[in-house]
Write a structure and sequence with these properties.
The protein is mostly helical. It is 65% helix and 2% strand. The protein is built from 12 helices and 2 strands. A two-stranded antiparallel ribbon has the order 1-2. Helix 1 packs parallel to helix 12 and helix 8 packs antiparallel against helix 9. The N and C termini lie far apart (54 Å).
Length: 259
Amino acid sequence: MFEKEIEEYESVRPEYQEKIADRMSKEQWMEYNEILFSAHSCAIEGNSFTVDDTRILREQGMAMIPVGHSLLECIEMADHFRAFDYIASHLDMPFDETLLKEVNRLVTEHTISYRAPGAIAGEYTTEDMSAGDTVFGDHETLIARVPSLMASTERAFCSGQHPLIVAAKWHGYYEYLHPFRDGNGRTGRLLSNFLLLRAGHPLLIIELKDRAEYISALKQIRIEGSDEFLVAFFFKTAIERMKNELAQKRKNSLPMMFF
């Protein structure tokens, strides 16, 4: 399954790596990804920062809060930067609960008291959870499955399965477990990209415009018991990103008439 998607993805990835990623310094490449990923990942959860707003905050810090945004949104974005920097600099860490809890702690540390009073950043929920129109299962039962999910994902990654499939399958089941009081979506997308970065693949950036399709794919895991829709969505999103940025690079390399 997914042979066609893998073939298309791998037919584009070498050109993308050569003409986009490798043409930037490592620092510039990671900053570019961090800004795009942070803007869209937080926007999926309701943050109103645009990519340009995110860039300003990343470059100038809290001294320059973009007009029209709340302090809470700025702090949320700053926490996401810290979590992203952490995964990017700890790619040698095992894919386990220690990593999971630390990423969630970083991504919610300065906002959880507003979003989930009484909860502790990086600690599992002590009550049952809901999100949107979804009521999750018994929280103790779901949390008990987290260690086996992390271990089986690490085994799948090391066995040579395609990294994008591993990242998608992990993400879908993790969101099904929904083990934290806050930050489950951001934590899940960060750790999916941890797997991709560790494999040397481009980051997966789910844009705000694709939120409805993304949520629908996640829901199919609960409705139909299948992660096929989410894996297909991951491939579609990754391929479109690479193709769009390559097309942008070609267009912006064309000569221009100045007069």
